[in-house]
Write a structure and sequence with these properties.
Length: about 120
């Protein structure tokens, strides 16, 4: 009985350690984006495509767009976005913008970042 208890305790300890040191690949890391970081696009309807290294939860992810003076708006994430991508669209006038993304990866961890870009005249 003593051996069983000791083995069980050891198993629990290993499980705790394994749970704490989960692989870094599990986090959603930005792979590519349209517009690109510091990129330039022409005024009109912009198709945003933000791609990650892992599956993300579209319902618990968020896109916030801010323009020059700081006016912020939330962009609706296209429900048909690929599993590792968030897509959205917006009609934008020329200016300096920043797209803030926040995504929930399948491992339950949230990552966020900013994509500054410029919209120019036609
Ligand atoms: Cu993680």
């Amino acid at each position: 009985m003593k051996i069983v208890v000791s083995a069980l305790r050891q198993f629990i300890q290993i499980a705790i350690i394994a749970g704490w040191s989960h692989p870094a690949e599990a986090h959603a890391i930005l792979i590519s984006s349209t517009p690109s970081i510091q990129g330039t696009v022409v005024t009109g309807t912009i198709a945003f495509k933000i791609k990650y290294n892992s599956r993300i939860d579209h319902h618990r992810s968020r896109l916030t767009l801010s323009v020059d003076a700081g006016a912020k708006s939330t962009l609706a994430i296209n429900p048909g976005s690929p599993v590792d991508e968030i897509d959205a669209s917006a009609t934008l006038r020329p200016g300096h913008y920043s797209l803030r993304w926040q995504v929930l990866a399948v491992d339950g961890h949230i990552t966020r970042g900013d994509i500054p870009f410029t919209v120019t005249e036609k």
